[in-house]
Amino acid sequence: MSKSHNDFSDQELIAKCRKDDSKAQEMLYKRFYGYAMGISLRYCINRDDALEAANDAFIKLFKTIKTFDDGRLIKPWFRQIIVNSAIDNRRKNIKHLAVLNIEYADEAPADHNIISKITAQEILELLKELPEMHRMIFNLYEIDGYTHEEIADILEMPSSSSRVYLSRAKEKLRRLVKAQFYLNYERAI
């Protein structure tokens, strides 16, 4: 009986992949597919783009796995590859994006009772409502922990632009929360 991808440690699979073992590559793919798609979906417009980015990331992983430092954990290293692949896939379309002007208005402070009831899935759905550049920078900064300088290098823009896009993303999210959750909350009272 052959072993499944769960029967090997990450290090064992990496060692086999370094020897171009296609079965080990398949096992590593199965092990990290969900992880790769979860990250890609946050950066891509649709599932097809996310799948393309995830598969590109696996190709890069297998091409560079021989240089992987055994002292590191594979997930953070692969996460970097996935994020870069997703951004590379989107970069070709960035120059075609229209920058939306957001009109700012004084907003009432958020009701923390409502905010605490919003699920992670609902937040991810709200992120899909953001313009692409806003969503990408929000993900890079708030979720993946990049600095504005790193984002500027990745997206080839001034770091001040990254700050502006992040600010606009947060403002748009505030408006979306208010529009989608406060109305339902007030109706429920």
UniProtKB/TrEMBL annotation:
It comes from the Bacteria. InterPro entries: RNA_pol_sigma-70-like (IPR039425), RNA_pol_sigma-70_dom (IPR014284), RNA_pol_sigma70_r2 (IPR007627), RNA_pol_sigma70_r4_t2 (IPR013249), RNA_pol_sigma_r2 (IPR013325), RNA_pol_sigma_r3/r4-like (IPR013324), WH-like_DNA-bd_sf (IPR036388). Keywords: Sigma factor, Transcription, Transcription regulation. One of its GO terms (molecular function) is sigma factor activity. Residues 28-93 form the RNA polymerase sigma-70 region domain. Residues 121-173 form the RNA polymerase sigma factor 70 region 4 type domain. GO terms for biological process: DNA-templated transcription initiation. Belongs to the sigma-70 factor family. ECF subfamily. This is RNA polymerase subunit sigma-70.
